[in-house]
Amino acid sequence: KNEVEQSPQNLTAQEGEFITINCSYSVGISALHWLQQHPGGGIVSLFMLSSGKKKHGRLIATINIQEKHSSLHITASHPRDSAVYICASRVRNFGNEKLTFGTGTRLTIIP
Amino acid sequence: DAGITQSPRHKVTETGTPVTLRCHQTENHRYMYWYRQDPGHGLRLIHYSYGVKDTDKGEVSDGYSVSRSKTEDFLLTLESATSSQTSVYFCAISAHNEQFFGPGTRLTVL
């Protein structure tokens, strides 16, 4: 059974700090997703990656396939980055894909 | 947002009543999913569909049924709602190797 664990569960930081959120998974996957959920509930896809590193603005996502680990980094954090960040591992099976989600990391950035 | 809408957005109902949630998409995507989100749990897959009239169970399918008679609509039915089904329900579609989520439906079963 594929399990996805995130750490930390909660993170509070000052504006401007460098943020790292970690995600570990237990089985071989085809891809790893990072999602963002703001208060009010909408879920937005940030990254989908299967190897290496991706960058979008102040957000960077990395994945180490051998170690079954991914990290999401936020540089120069801002209060508007406050949200729940969710990682999800994707497994393909006979043409169907299924995601297994972590429980999320609640990030609060204090001005 | 991949043109995904959910209805209703909020619903309060009583134990034992039937409830149907609707997910509608406008872009003819083949794969559609229903998830529930509860505190302390990640999003959990209830059912998914890989085409019209083609559906399969997810990890928490007990007490739920689905139907997909048209590409654009994926319905989730609680035949007899229970308090344990109080949750936020998200519909999603799969496109371009990513999943896109609807805005969610908050369901309260009293």
Number of E-type strands of chain A: 11
What fraction, in percent, of the residue positions of chain A are helical? under 10%
Largest sheet of chain B: 7 strands, mixed
SS field, number of helical segments of chain A: 0
Element order, helices and strands of chain A?
EEEEEEEEEEE
Cα distance, first to last residue of chain A? 41 Å
Q: Label the overall shape of chain A.
A: globular
**Per the principal axes of the C-alpha atoms, what is the gross shape of chain B?**
globular
Most extensive chain interface and residues per partner:
A-B, 22 and 22 residues
Radius of gyration of chain A: 14 Å
Give the rounded overall mean pLDDT of chain B: 94
Mean pLDDT of chain A: 92
Radius of gyration of chain B: 13 Å
User: Uncertain spans of chain A, ≥5 residues at pLDDT below 50?
Assistant: none
Q: Spell out the helices and strands of chain B N to C.
A: EEEEEEEEEEE
For this entry, what is the oligomeric state of its chains?
heterodimer
Separate helix tally of chain B: 0
By secondary-structure content and strand pairing, the structural class of chain A works out as: mainly beta
Short structural description:
Chain A is an all-beta fold. The relative contact order of chain B is 0.33.
Structure description:
- The complex is a heterodimer of chains A (111) and B (110).
- Chain A is an all-beta fold and 111 residues long.
- Chain A is built from no helices and eleven strands.
- In chain A, the strands form two sheets. In chain A, strands 2, 4, 5, 9, 10 and 11 form a six-stranded mixed β-sheet that branches. Chain A has a five-stranded antiparallel β-sheet with strand order 1-3-8-7-6, with no helix packed on it.
- In chain A, strand 9 (83-93) and strand 10 form a beta hairpin.
- Chain B has 110 residues and is mainly beta.
- Chain B is 0% helix and 58% strand.
- Chain B has strands at residues 4-7, 10-13, 19-25, 32-37, 44-51, 54-57, 64-70, 73-78, 87-95, 98-101, 105-109.
- In chain B, the strands form two sheets. In chain B, strands 2, 4, 5, 6, 9, 10 and 11 form a seven-stranded mixed β-sheet that branches. A four-stranded antiparallel β-sheet of chain B has the order 1-3-8-7, with no helix packed on it.
- In chain B, a hairpin with a 6-residue loop joins strand 4 (32-37) and strand 5 (44-51).
- The termini of chain B are far apart.
- Chains A and B meet through strand 4, strand 5 and strand 10 of A and strand 5, strand 9 and strand 10 of B.
